[in-house]
Input
Amino acid sequence: MFGIKKRYNRIRREAEIMNVLVKHGFGYIADRINLQVIGKKKVSAGEEKIPVPVRARLVLEDLGPTFIKFGQILSMRPDLIPVEFAEEFKKLLDEVPPFEYEHVEKQIRGELGSSVGELFREFKKEPTAAASIGQVHNAKLKTDDTVVVKVQRPGIEDIIEADVEILFNIARLVTKHIPESRLYDPVGIVEEFARTIRRELDYTIEGRNADRLRKNFEGDDTVYIPLVYWDFTTRKVITMELVKGYKVSEIEKSLNSENRKKISENIAKSYMKQIFIDGFFHADPHPGNIFVRNSQIVLMDFGMVGRVDDYTKEKIANLFIAIIQKDIDDIIEKLLDIGMVSDETDIPKFRADITEVIEEYYGTSLQQVDIPTMLNNILKTTIRHKIIIPSNFILLIKTLVTMEGICREVDPEFNLTEISKPFVEALIKEKMSPRYLMDKFMKTVTEFNELLIKMPRKVDQILSKLETGDLVIDLEHKGLTKFISEMDTSSNRLSASLIISAIIVGSSIIMLTGKGPLLFGFPVFGVVGFAIAAILGMGLVISILRSGKF
Output
């Protein structure tokens, strides 16, 4: 019975999604993937005149929390969707009405095992913020510690899982029936979203992220990370220290320039440390997630973080140095080193376009070089040329661009180049140090030694499979369509030549016998054979001349 109800709900939701697509002028998608739309709605007046990215945003807004979150995550991934869609999806707001307090109490009791009154000295019934996944309440523990409690929206996990399943079904149908969509890998996009949203549904992951950042900034008076109260934290409830301050977007106009400069520098330096030293950074630096108390920066909301391993860190540092030095050839080489070149990439055209982007900054002083904007333009150019860039690198650039914009709002004279250069140069210096080079050499020797040890066993396994006939080699050929077509043409011409030759030889033998019906003293079959051979031969010659390949 439960299965039938679940299937009915899914069918009803799919129908709702299709109707919203039709409403905003995307009915052709439903038609192309062979989905029937129940109670088909008409396209709104003037809807077709609205740009496609805008209509796509309206679709996500109409479909509710899961799809709004889907769009927000995609807005940070221009490598997965066209850039114009990513820009439009940035306008999506995760603002939904709060759920009733009785559900808050029920969720807390179910997760923490006690009632609100037993756990907290005070608990504000009115939420301070509400979003699609959860809402936040101010409270006070029995120890008099003031805290914020984020409670997950009841049933949201089931809703999101159901919508994700529908998204997977639609993505598979789109991939199957709309060949041009395969360029963007619809199933891969949904997989990326599913991974991200499922992590956000687990508040213990957010708590661990906060703890790691807090540890990384121990002893640093310029940055503060709120404390997580683990005794009051589960997958669906997280309790953190309440930090007094004001949002960076609410900095008073009267604040003097010296304080503004200090605040912007503290924000930038904190991110440079996270990226180039710790390799672990807060990846959602919008104004609502950065608070200020005096000149100290307080980071909030740790559901989205980025990671930079040593290899990527070194590549980023090398790219930064190349950009600072305005070495176009080196920038191109570093980008090709970071990314993966696809079969569709035209390297000479890519070099020309990147050169055009970089040359815009020639003739400007180092202080005037806007590295985040340059990086963003380079990223757009790279994606346009179908060079696959690692997702953590794209997230890092988006974080830098957002952070730099916030710092400029605080201090119009802010310059990220001046802040970032010492961090990048220190990283490069570290990578060139004798100790680092020796460690890298020893690691390489160890890996090579392990390879030598494993090689005999691997070779033995391959030979054993070869002996038993179990070895299957699956080779995928790409770019051979033209070659195969030309081979077909050549083999057809060769076959035609052999047939013509056979007819000529046969006709000649008949002519020599002199037997059979005669025409002008020659055997009729011989004459007909020569005529057929002449016609076929002339056609073959004309075909070869037309192809231009002779």
Observations:
- The chain has 20 helices and 15 strands.
- The mean pLDDT is 79.
- Residues 444-471 form one domain.
- The radius of gyration is 33 Å.
